[in-house]
């Protein structure tokens, strides 16, 4: 359900509350509205995915235990689409659950029962951080011969004074952008699978296939052995130190 009265305030951030308990959703809507936010409410996971697609909210408050797709599934879909900030709301107060959420790309984690005023403060803090990150990432990523423009999703590679613009698939672009962002880091197949491949891909060996195709395209330009496989660990960009 959308709080339509608040949608006439275009200057305020829109918060999507994905929560199947109406009383909790109502409290969060009231506290957020009191702080000047617009709100929309999804009562299950499927509706959360649909509203995220249609409304493009500035942040999602996401419950884990929901019908028709749980919070983990919704978070995975949101991360596949982009970088919308997500705060997980859940009755699960276990360290492992927090780690899973953060590793899947959640920006913060609040265990129930919670203080609604604290949730609003966390929303404000995450939105501030997200604004700072977006301003930094508006600049292209650069490492070695690679220049990756995240907004236009184009890659330019300078070799011997010539600039090449390879034709990459969406997954190949995601992989290369990941490596260029952290050129010295070794990424596990599980990390690349979760962060770079389309929703529904569940086999880690699928990562190897995409890496192989990306490597062939880079080799055709004269760049050998990139991305570099690191035995028993995963892959890194492979720039010479």
How would you concisely characterize the structure shown here?
This protein is an alpha/beta fold and 241 residues long. Helices cover 42% and strands 19% of the residues. Helix 1 packs across helix 5 (116-137) and helix 6 (170-181) packs across helix 8.
Counted up, domains total 2
Poorly predicted residue ranges? 1-11
Oligomer: single chain
Euclidean distance between termini CA atoms: 54 Å
Q: How does CATH name the architecture of the largest domain?
A: 3-Layer(aba) Sandwich
> How many strands?
11
**Sheet with most strands: strand arrangement:** 2-1-3-4-5
CATH class of the largest domain: Alpha Beta
Report the order of strands and helices. Answer: EHEHEHEHEHEEEEHHHEE
Q: Outline, from the CA principal axes? A: elongated
Instruction: Round the Cα radius of gyration to an integer and report it.
Output: 20 Å
User: What's the CATH H-level superfamily name of the largest domain?
Assistant: Response regulator
For the largest beta-sheet, the strand count, sense and barrel status come to: 5 strands, parallel
Structural class: alpha/beta
Rounded mean pLDDT is: 83
Please render the helix and strand layout as text.
Blueprint lengths: L13 E5 L3 H13 L3 E5 L2 H11 L3 E5 L7 H11 L4 E5 L4 H9 L4 E4 L4 H22 L3 E3 L2 E4 L4 E6 L2 E3 L5 H12 L7 H8 L8 H15 L8 E3 L3 E3 L5
Parallel strand pairs: 1-2, 1-3, 3-4, 4-5
Antiparallel strand pairs: 6-7, 7-8, 8-9, 10-11
What does this structure look like?
The protein folds into 2 domains: 4-136, Response regulator (Rossmann fold, 3-Layer(aba) Sandwich), CATH 3.40.50.2300; 141-236, Arc Repressor Mutant, subunit A (Orthogonal Bundle), CATH 1.10.10. It has a 5-stranded parallel β-sheet, sandwiched between helices. Strands 6-7-8-9 form a 4-stranded antiparallel β-sheet, covered by helices on one side. A two-stranded antiparallel sheet has the order 10-11. The chain has helices at residues 22-34, 45-55, 71-81, 95-103, 116-137, 170-181, 189-196, 205-219, and strands at 14-18, 38-42, 59-63, 86-90, 108-111, 141-143, 146-149, 154-159, 162-164, 228-230, 234-236. Residues 1-11 have low confidence and may be disordered. It is elongated. It is built from 8 helices and 11 strands. With 241 residues, the chain is α/β, with parallel strands linked by helices.
